[in-house]
Amino acid sequence: MSNPNAYRLHCFAQSGNSFKVAFLLRALGQPFETVFVDYLNAGATRDPAWRASVNEMGEAPVLEDGALRLCQSGVILTHLADKHGAFGGDSSDDKREILRWLLFDNHKFTSYFASYRFAKAFGAAPPDPAVMAWLKGRIDAAYGIVEQHLQGRDFIVGHTPTIADFSLSGYLFFPPEESGLDIAARFPRIAAWADRLKAIPGWIAPYEVLPGERIAPRW
Ligand SMILES: N[C@@H](CCC(=O)N[C@@H](CS)C(=O)NCC(=O)O)C(=O)O
After folding, report:
1. Within 10 Å of residue 164's Cβ, how many Cβ atoms?
2. If you write DSSP's letter for every residue of 75-131 in order, what string do you get?
């Protein structure tokens, strides 16, 4: 029987943006139900009815918190950190820094990697080598910036994990063969940081928490 007080997370297995939210909910000890969004087989996010009733932006994740329905992982993470008083930074300086990294993540760090991985693992047709080469250059640049930032730091902002870490790490826990990029070998500080995040109570592998079938990389 469903719990009327639980959060409802619209999401699917391959979505690292959804994983960011699932991981934070678990770290906060908050129960949630998942609502499967059939993006890969049915293109649910492009359905006008889905957009009208769930998210006009046509994206997962969407979090229902009672009557409130939120999209954009950065907004959802901020809402949850504020509401539960954890992982939101210790000061207004921290909060500004967190926002800066959330914006960088959404524009570059997550988005180029997610696009590359999607084309390589789940696209309907073989990826265009020129597009992949361009995306890889953008990934290298964005990952290089985070690698540099992590020099002498355990976490992205301050000395303890914040939602900036949950956001930037959203795609790092999927099997490396999906992207075909050996991030751990090329960016050792990022790999060590991801291992530190795995030690946060509540961490779980994405395919163990998000609904939907796991798919073998197609290309
Ligand atoms: N900036 C958004 C990105 C969300 C996003 O790209 N979601 C993907 C799944 S990971 C999606 O639903 N894409 C559907 C589509 O593009 O049609 C966020 O952080 O929530």
Report:
1. 26
2. HHHHHHHHHHT-SS-SSHHHHHHHHHHHHHIIIIIHHHHHHHHIIIII-SSPPPHHH
Structure tokens at 60: 């997962």
- Whole-number pLDDT of residue 53: 98
Closest CA to 201 of 48, 60, 17, 23: 23
pLDDT on residue 196: 98
Instruction: Measure 73 CA to ligand 1 centroid, in angstroms.
Output: 9
Residue 65, pLDDT score: 98
If one residue of 18, 45, 59 were mutated to test the ligand 1 pocket, choosing by the most ligand atoms within 8 A of its CB, it would be 59
- What's the pLDDT score for residue 5? 67
Sheet holding 32-36, edge to edge: 32-36, 7-11, 62-65, 68-71
Q: Which two tokens stand for residue 217?
A: 């990389």
Please give the distance, rounded to the nearest whole angstrom, from the Cα atom of residue 60 to the centre of ligand 1.
5
Whether the model clears a pTM of 0.90, i.e. scores above it, the answer is yes
Give me the pLDDT at residue 217, please.
96
Give residue ranges with CB within 6 A of ligand 1: 15-17, 39, 45-46, 58-61, 72-74, 106
Cis omega (within 30 of 0) on the bond before 217?
no
Phi, psi of 204 (to 5 degrees): -155, 155
Q: Please list the ranges in the chain whose pLDDT falls under 70.
A: 1-5
Identify the pLDDT of residue 120. Answer: 98
| Dist. CA 138–CA 144, nearest whole Å | 10
